[in-house]
Amino acid sequence: MRLRVFRWSPGARAGRFDEFRVEPATHATVLDALVELREREAPDLAFRYACRVGMCGSCALVVNGRERWACRTRLASLVPRRRTARGAGTAGARDPVVTVRPLYHFPLIRDLVVDMAPFVSKMRAVGAAFVPPAAGPADPPGSRGDATGRVAPPPERDPTGSVAAAFAPIGSDSGERRAIDPAIECIGCGACVSACTMVRWNERFPGPAALNRAFTLLADSRDGGAADRVEALFGEDGVFRCHGQAQCTAVCPMELSPTDSILTLRRRAALALFSRG
Fold first, then answer.
1. Which of 246, 234, 238, 245 is nearest to 270 (CA)?
2. Which of 8, 28, 101, 234 has a CA that sits 20 to 30 A from residue 135's CA?
3. Among 49-58, 229-238, 250-259, which stretch is predicted with the lowest mean pLDDT?
C-alpha cells in the first residue's frame, strides 16, 4: 500500500504530497500508519491526535477526499475490492493508494495540523455558551420551540423570584428533549466545517457546527441568551446562507444532522418574522 501524505511547513510557497510505502496490519487505522511513519521514516511529520479511540475528534483529516477520523478509519476499508470474472469480490486492489491531507477551510500550521481558531470564533459569533436566564434579555417571539418550530413557554420562576427552577432537568419524554437530543453529541472535530461548501465562499457564515450548537440552545427553554443569538443567526450571513447540500451531515462521524438543525432554525426565523407583524 502507498500512503500519500500532504506536507507543508511555514515559509514554503506551496504544499506537496510525499509518498511512502506501508505494510499495515489487518486492523490498522490511518492513525496507526501515520504514527508508524513518523517513528520510522518521517520524524518531522506533524499531525494531531489524542485519545485514539474516537472520543476527542482531534485526528480529523481528509482521507481519500472525505473527512474522517484517522483513529476510526481502517486502511483496509479504503482499498477498492477487485472483481473476478464471476463478479465475486477478492481481497483488494493491487498496490492501492491512500491520500491524506488536512481539513479544508482552516489555516495550516504544519503538514496535517490546522489552526482551529476559526472554529472557536464561529462558535462565539453565534453565542454558543449557555446564558443563565437572569443574565439574558427577554426572548423574542418565535425564538424557541420544538423540532416543528412551535413556541415553548419561558422557564418558570418560584414566588421568591429565584431562577433555580429554570435549571431543573428537562423531562426525558418532553418534545423539547426529543428535539435537542439528536444534536447534542458534537465534539468539535471540524469535519463538517471542512466539508461545507458555503464556508469556503463566505467567511462570515457560522458553519454547520456553530449553527447546530445554536439550535440546541434555542430549543432549550432554560437558556436566556436567545435575543442576542437570534440577531447573528437570522441575519444576512446566517442560516439562510446554507444551501442545504447536506455535506456536513454526510461526513459527521457522530452521525448528527446539522442540516436538520439549520432547517429548524429557518422555520423559527419565519415564525419570529410573522409574530412581529
1. 234
2. 234
3. 229-238
